Amino acid sequence: MTTTAPSSNVTERLVQVGQIQARVLVAGTGDPVLFIHGAGGLWWDPFLDALAEGHTVYAVEHPGGGESDALTHLPGIWELVLFYDELLDALELDTVQVVGHSFGGMVAAELASNSPRRVTKLVLIAPIGFWRDDAPIPDIAGIPPETLPGLVLADPDSPLAAMLIPPADDPQALFEAAMRMASVLHFIWPIPEKGLSRRIHRLSAPTLLIWGAQDKLVDPVYAEEFTSRLRDSRLELIEGAGHLPQLESPDVVRGHVLDFLS
Fold first, then answer.
1. Bridge-partner residues for 234, per DSSP?
2. Global pTM?
3. d(CA 246, CA 257)
4. Are 203 and 178 spatial neighbours (Cβ–Cβ below 8 Å)?
5. Which tens digit of pLDDT belongs to each residue from 26-75?
6. Which of 44, 151, 207, 234 has a CA between 20 and 30 Å from the CA of residue 254?
C-alpha cells in the first residue's frame, strides 16, 4: 500500500519527538483516537474517515517509514513504545483511545501495557506480538510480492490486491515500499515475540479484537493468545475477511469499532 498525501479535510503535522520528526495526519472532532498502522504504511483510508466522523484521529507514520534516519535512534521495541508515549505528550493527549492494525496492533498493546492509565480503550485489528510454533507467522521479508494478496486477503482477486503491490516499473514506489518494510522488520525480525507476553498483564484498557476469519498471515488462533491474557476483552471474528478486515468488510468492522469507542 502506498503512503498518501492528506486530503482536504486531513491536516499534516510534523511533531518533534526528541531527535525524531514524526509525521501525523489529523482529522475529525471529538475524543482523541491514536491510529497506529501496519507494514502497509500510513495512508488515509475510508476506515479512518469513519473514525474521524466522531473523533479526532491522529494517524502516525512509523519512524523510519519515510526518508529519515529515525531508526538509528530506536534500537528496539522498548524505545519505539517510549517514542509513542513522548509523542502523546507532544500532542498534549493525556489519555487516548488507541487503534492498531497488525504491527501497529503490537505497538498499541505494548503502549497500553507500558502506560495503562493513559490508554482508555484499545482496538487491535489482527495484531502480531506473540509466537506459536503450531501457527508460525510468515517472515514478511521473504514473501514474494505476487503472493502477498493470497496471504492477506480473503479474495486475492479483489480490487484491493492491486493496492498491495507497488508497480515494478516505478522505482520511487518500490523504494518507498522497501523503506516501509524496513521500518517494521527493524523491530520484529526474525519473529514478532519481543516480550509482550511478559508485559501484557499490565494492560487494563477494555479491548476489542477484530480478526479476519480467513487471515492467512496471522492465523486467527492468535486471538486466543490475546483474549486469554487480557482482563477485559471481546473478539469479533469477521467472515469473508483476511488480514485487512477494516478494508475487506468495512461496514461490519466500522460498526463494531464505532460502537466500542462510543
1. 208
2. 0.94
3. 10
4. no
5. 999 999 999 999 998 898 999 999 999 999 999 999 998 766 689 999 99
6. 151
Region at 28 (left for phi over 0; alpha for psi -120 to 50; beta for the rest)? left
If residue 107 lies in a helix (H) or strand (E), which one and from where to where?
A: helix 103-114
Architecture of domain 11-261: 3-Layer(aba) Sandwich (3.40)
CA dihedral 114, 118, 122, 128 (to 10 degrees): -20
pLDDT, one tens digit per residue, over 144-172 is 888 999 999 999 999 999 888 777 778 88
CB-CB contact of 83 with 72 (8 Å): no
Q: Which residues contact 11 (CB under 8 A, 6 or more apart)?
A: 25, 26, 27
The CA distance from 162 to 133, in Å, is 32
Q: What CA–CA distance (Å, rounded) separates 93 from 35? A: 13
